[in-house]
Specification:
- InterPro entries: ADH-like_C, ADH-like_N, GroES-like_sf, NAD(P)-bd_dom_sf, Zn-ADH-like_protein.
- The chain has 376 residues and is of the alpha/beta class.
- It contains 12 helices and 19 strands.
- The structure holds NADP nicotinamide-adenine-dinucleotide phosphate.
- NADP nicotinamide-adenine-dinucleotide phosphate (NAP) is lined by residues 49-50, 177, 197, 199-203, 221-223, 226, 245, 268-270, 272-273, 276, 295-297, 319-321, 366.
Length: 376
């Protein structure tokens, strides 16, 4: 028997029927909990700067239609399947979008966004978790729910809380992604990491996470203005240097080297940056034995300086999103006060019907900490 609190029969959801036509708000049956899942009332759902290009087909992300759109979110548990042993109705949770098959975890996809790259991942999205968070209720695998310490995170400062609003907590999702990559390469406190590009939503979050991990950061970006904006908003600006990407590969490398030995390079460029000079500038600025985490969304191959990489014992790691443990441990950083989410600047909060305004806002305001939210 599932445990639940008053689930309505029907709910509103933002449904995409094809990438050739805009989505629309429809009334559909409220999902019911099953073994291994929970139903969560969606309170604040994130957007991504390139949300429009996902759903209009420009990004060429494969996914089944019709699709209830959406991305990661903060919500309150409404019902749980019979196998839930800890999470219960009423709990505040963050729900992330990386869904993995239980019998083959490499069959993975991003709920609401992309069906992944295997037959198994496509099947799992198509047949089981096709409907996501731009809806009043969302059915998610139990393991995608992370219980939040509501008292500590949202309690008043005078009561020992951190005083975050739910909207500020939503920016945690952008931080999970770079935490996955920075942990993967074993970034240590006291080390220096170059982050490029550092001026977008995920790149800026990478700077915040690296600082929380105790590292020193060299942030790169094409826009001096955006680099200055980042530095003005980041906690611990004394541990952040900025180097503009000028297009002169060797000159930029020389600038990076001014800051001493660099232990790691974290890359999170968008598809358009696949031929950017920053990739080579960053690699050849690294010390012997350094590590690289490539998390960029490049669709084309990127050129790498093979001889330098080989002779310098450089290790290159790819990372798609994060592991489960990374999410739990990221919240330990938040709860301890080391990772500051008050950097979140909510640029707008929109009902489902105003999805277009939300996605436009997300595309136009994608600098460090900025976040447009959908409140179904
Ligand atoms: N591996 C993963 O799991 C994972 C997860 C999430 C996202 N991603 C990828 O990460 C990418 C970046 O995410 P984001 O949220 O930071 O994107 P964003 O907010 O759209 O920012 C894009 C960043 O790239 C810079 N940029 C754009 N065009 C460039 C070019 N031609 N050369 C150099 N820099 C350029 C922008 O800086 P200026 O325009 O100011 O110069 C900005 O810093 C996404 O496109 C996505 O594909 C990967």
């Amino acid at each position: 028997m599932a445990t639940s609190i008053d689930l309505p029969e029907k709910m509103k959801a933002l449904v995409l029927r094809s990438t050739h036509e805009p989505p629309s708000v429809e009334t559909i049956p409220t999902p019911q909990p099953t073994v291994g899942s929970a139903i969560v009332r969606v309170l604040v759902a994130n957007t991504i700067s390139y949300m429009r290009d996902i759903y209009n087909g420009k990004r060429r992300y494969p996914f089944p239609t019709p699709l209830v759109t959406g991305t990661s979110f903060i919500g309150r548990v409404a019902a749980v399947g019979p196998d839930a042993t800890k999470i219960k109705p009423g709990d505040l949770v963050v729900v992330d979008i990386m869904i993995r098959s239980r019998d083959e975890p490499t069959d993975a996809f991003l709920a609401g966004v992309i069906q992944g790259f295997t037959e198994g991942s496509a099947k799992l999205m198509r047949d089981v978790y096709r409907d996501w968070s731009y809806a009043e209720y969302c059915r998610a695998p139990l393991e995608n729910l992370t219980l939040l310490n509501e008292r500590r995170l949202t309690g008043a400062k005078q009561d020992g809380g951190l005083g975050y609003s739910l909207s500020q907590l939503a920016v945690s999702s952008a931080h999970m992604v770079p935490y996955g990559g920075l942990r993967d390469i074993g970034l240590q406190a006291g080390q220096t990491v170059v982050i490029a590009p550092a001026t977008g939503a995920f790149g800026g979050a990478a700077v915040n996470v690296a600082l929380a991990m105790g590292a020193r950061v060299i942030a790169m970006g094409r826009s001096k203005d955006s680099l200055a904006f980042l530095k003005s908003k980041i906690p611990h600006p004394e541990r952040v240097e900025t180097v503009p990407i000028t297009g002169d590969m060797m000159a930029d490398c020389k600038e990076l080297k001014k800051y001493g030995p660099i232990d790691a390079y974290f890359d999170i460029g968008p598809p358009e940056a696949h031929a950017s000079t920053h990739i080579k500038s960053c690699i050849i600025a690294l010390r012997h034995g350094a590590r690289i985490s490539i998390m960029g969304g490049y669709r084309e191959d990127i050129a790498i300086p093979h001889s330098f990489i080989m002779h310098s014992n450089i290790r290159i790691y790819g990372k798609w999103m994060y592991e489960r443990q990374d999410i739990y441990d990221l919240f330990k950083l938040v709860e301890s006060g080391l990772l500051d989410l008050s950097v979140a600047e909510v640029t707008g909060e929109y009902p489902l019907e105003e999805w277009k305004a939300a996605w436009d806002d997300a595309a136009e305001n994608a600098r460090f900490g900025q976040i447009a939210l959908i409140k179904p």
